[in-house]
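Thread: "does anyone have the structure for this chain?"

Original post by V.I.:
We have the sequence but no experimental structure in hand. Need at least a predicted one for the grant figures.
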Amino acid sequence: MSRDRLNNPHDKYFRESFSRKETVRSFIRQYLPSGVCRQLDLNKLEIVKDSFVDKELSEHFSDILYKTVISGKQSYLYLLFEHKSYIDHFTGFQLLRNMVKIWEQCLKSNRNKKKLPVIIPVVIYQGKHKWNCSNSIISLFESVENTDKYIPDFNSEIYDISHIPDEEIRGSILLRVHFLIMKYINSPQLFDKLHDILNMMALLSEKRKKTEYLETFLRYLVSTVDNSKFEVIKTELKRTVDKGDDLMPTIAQMWIKEGMEKGVEKGIEKGIEKGIEKGIEKGIEKGIEKGIEKGIEKGIEKGIKKEKMETAKKMIQLNMSTEDIRKITGLSIKKIDELRKK
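Reply from O.Q.:
Generated one for you, tokens below.
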């Protein structure tokens, strides 16, 4: 699984959101054609775990596969959800490739199967530009007279979340919240919409779920917006969410974790560079090995320390107590006092 793929916060948020059955049930009822919906037994909807999908397919981190029983039959229908945060003209080809992998797995798991299951491919797109690709795979092929019957073809259901008017975003509270967040996360309007989004989230009846979804949203926010927006988020949480103030240390910890990960990544990069440089200087294999090791160690250490200091400065600006800053950042009281004096 590629590091970039795993580190895409939009894919991560989509996967977390659409791994919840109640969200997907609501999506199916509200957005899939009614003729399809009527045939599905949504009480038997289940997510297909990664272990079912082979290794090659599981590398497509934002793909989520569900299956459900077709009413009155003993057979399943599959729904393959693919998330895109950029326009990709070959999405249809990727879907076809993934569908073939799913069919292969179905046949492997049931040697007596005589028919392949139907798979409905669904693309959820959130991006700056309007989705302008055909929903039919046939458009990807060169046009050669009298050859249409040799070309595989199917349609995908495409939902361009970023360009749907707010009033057309339908479904359960949770589905609407997810889509509004996905729509505005990269928009300058995000903080104008934050109040409405948090108000909707506050309507969720079950307290445990409300907290869990709120933390999922905050993790997404933390990984996509600059920590200079901490004060805006803090104010809005206090205004909208019951005991929203209690979440501040959690958000600060999320930013630290995010910062540490970035620091570790930068440190590794710098460390490898330095290590190779030193090793070449010495001209020995051992030197390169040792240099890389030392460089990585130093780089990680430096990266983490820098991010901790930055976070502590932000927390000082927000008048957080020295004890809270110490607990969250791990910095000594002496170091925090020094930062306060600067």
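V.I.: this helps a lot. The chain has two domains: 3-187, 189-342.
O.Q.: and The two ends are 44 Å apart (CA to CA).
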